[in-house]
Amino acid sequence: MSYSLPPELLCQIFDSDTLQYDDQVIFARVCKSWCDIVASLIWKKVPNIEVLFRLLAPFTLRDEKLAFDRSLKPEDWERFDYYAYRVHDLDQIGWSLHPSIFTEISTSRLGGLPPSGLLPNLRRLQHYHCTFEYIDFFLHPTVTTLVLAPLTGWHSLGPVLESLPIRTPHIATLSISALAYPLTKDAERLVTEVLPKLSSLASISLPSLWPTGSVVNALASCSSLSKLSTAPIFRNQHTGDSSPELFSTSISPTGFPLLSTLQTSLTFCRATEVLSQGEQFSTLSRLLLRSPRIEIPQEYGALLTALSNYCPDLEHLALCITLFPRPTYHSDCLTYRELSPLRHLTRLQTLSLQHTNSFQLGPEDFITIIRALPSLTELDFNPIPYIKTTPTLNISILSILRDLCPNLRFLGLYLDAREQYIPPHPPSEGEGRFDRPMPELSEFPHLKVFKVGMSPISSPAKLATYLCRLLPHSCNLISTWDEDEGEEDREAAQKWGEVVGLIRAAKQV
Asked: What whole-number distance in Å separates Cα of residue 349 and Cα of residue 275?
């Protein structure tokens, strides 16, 4: 009966995550029809072109690199083509091949011309830490995803980018990494000329210092672009801000018509200027901003205000700081004044906020914000501040959070978990509004992760008892500790470790 199953169904069965490579090899030996289906799955992704080239002829060492030990014959190409047309995904990491291999392939296949049909169904090409002198062998019109991490500088990458509109006109995803220096004027001019010609470009990832004003303006004219991301900028806080010329404040009013995801590194002041231009970013649903400096509360608040005004449909928001080394001095804390614009981003499903100092936000104000965000599934509310002060939220806030955000899967909070704030059970007289009794059943049915950073703690046993009733069995409690911290944090880390152990033991019982 299995022989009568349609190939599409057999492909789904043989491509199951539960099957290993050895299992697929066994299935390939059952019959000819199964062999053809399974062979296409096994050869769909090739980790290195050497695997395919070994089908052409045996290798030998020449100048410490791999080379063919004989000339190629027509029957070699028949064997190669049987597998090559099945390859959709090629990951090339470095070269261990002798140049003579490419000379022989080119001469044998097309009389000296680059064999553009070498992998006729190639869709995805990742070229890591390689020179680009042989990349023409793989830049086929079928390629829709291209990942480039050049081993050398712009002089090798520039000609490749210039050729993309002709050689790979259907590219939808382009990622360039491993170049941490700014573009030269000539390089910037080439990039701004090439990008608008990639009419199918939907997603692009660039090095951190590439999105200059002219590059961003060029990207804004890409009518299919839905995702723009750049590498993080990691900068010592004593070296100044990121380059003010990054991004553009003169984007066309019709720019970025389909942009839904933006992930980039900008100071919050610059980000506010960029986002406040008009309707260019009104289509954003996902935003990740990384600032390479300590952000003062006023600029944090101004950014959130701009987001509530110009990006009202945001569903995923993350604001973080990328500082190295970590700061050692206090700055002003964020309060309700700066964080209150979050109330207007009512469609948020995931929210991640990071600041150098712990938030100074009382329970009433915290609840006011969270009540306005009923769709939250992930809340990462600065659980690991660089500079810790006494938390303004305590452990009893968890019982209220369940009612406000019943679908939470991830929760990160910096809160006071000392014994005096653990809700009593049964409740005593005169309980405060935020001092609710222990729940009898799990209050977070979907919670998978609860991150507490290094929140203050005094009684591991009582806290574990409370959390056992509050958290589902599948929830992981995560605390963090930095070896550079003081003795007080070392003790807190040990106590949180006890809580994790007690909860694990209770789950086993």
From this structure: 21
In Å, how far are 49, 61, 80, 370, 466 from 55, measured between CA atoms? 10, 17, 6, 60, 63
Domain ranges (residues) in the chain: 1-42, 326-509
Structure tokens, 431: 């309980």
- Tell me the residue ranges of DSSP E strands in 386-485: 410-413, 449-453, 476-479
Under CATH, which number does the domain 326-509 receive? 3.80.10
The pLDDT averaged over each successive group of 10 residues in the chain (509 residues) is 63 65 69 76 85 90 89 88 90 84 82 65 87 83 92 81 93 87 89 96 94 95 96 58 71 94 94 94 96 91 97 96 65 91 96 92 95 95 86 92 91 93 65 46 82 90 89 87 64 87 79
Q: How far is CA 342 from CA 118, 332, 348, 354, in A?
A: 53, 19, 9, 14
Ranges of H-type helices in 115-200: 154-167, 185-194
SS3 7: helix
Nearest to 57 by CA among 116, 114, 98: 98
Burial label, 265 (beta-carbon count in 10 A; 0-12, 13-18, 19+) = buried
DSSP for 209-220, written as a single string: T--BHHHHHHHH
| 3-class state of residue 473 by DSSP | coil
The CA radius of gyration of the chain, in Å to the nearest whole number, is 28
Is pTM, for the whole model, over 0.70?
yes
Per 3-state DSSP, what percentage of the chain is helix, strand, and coil (rounded to 5)? 35, 15, 50
Phi, psi angle pair for 43, to nearest 5°: -95, 5
State which fold the 1-42 domain adopts.
Monooxygenase (1.20.1280)
Which 3-state string (H, E, C) describes 282-303? CCCCEEEEEECCCCCHHHHHHH
What residues have CB less than 8 Å from 24, skipping those under 6 apart?
A: 14, 38, 41, 42
Distance, CA of 478 to CA of 501 (rounded, Å): 12
The helix or strand, by DSSP H or E, that contains position 429, with its residue range, turns out to be none
Q: What is the spatial distance between Cα 497 and Cα 503, in angstroms, rounded to a whole number?
A: 10
Widest CA span of the chain, in angstroms?
Answer: 92
Nearest 5°: the CA angle 397, 350, 204 is 155
CA atoms in the 13 A half-sphere facing the CB of 221:
13
Q: What is the DSSP secondary structure assignment for residue 67, as one 8-state letter?
A: E
